Amino acid sequence: MYHWFPISILLIPLLVLAEPIQIKKPITCESTLLVFQVLLEQAGEKPIWVGRGDGEDTSRTVILTNEKTKTWTILQFDKNMACVLGSGVGNQQIFTGPVT
Question: In terms of DSSP bridges, do strands 28-31 and 81-89 run parallel, antiparallel, or are they unpaired?
């Protein structure tokens, strides 16, 4: 019945010792106006989610998608500069309505 218990006791020290890793990847940044112009007008992507930084971080993060081509882009931006954090093809929207 509780066969997983001894195994979990053995794994706990491994989880405690696990250290976060840093992934270094190139980030492309450009003028906010230019990036949004390219994504909205040329790529046909529309924003589906936006979040705001907390504290002193006044930047915004936005997810844009194109429903027809299935492209997507994640941007972090402020009034001057926008940086592409990720992009690709093949998105699936799993939430389609408001939270009640």
Answer: antiparallel
3-state secondary structure string, the chain?
Answer: CCCHHHHHHHHHHHHHHCCCCCCCCCCEEEEHHHHHHHHHHHCCCEEEEEEECCCCCCCEEEEEECCCCCEEEEEEECCCEEEEEEEEECCCCCCCCCCC
Question: Which pLDDT score, from 0 to 100, does residue 30 have?
Answer: 97
Give this prediction's pTM: 0.71
Quick check: 43 and 73 in contact, CB under 8 A?
yes
In the chain, where are the structural domains located? 21-89
Phi and psi based region of residue 44 (left: phi greater than 0; alpha: psi -120 to 50; beta: remaining): left
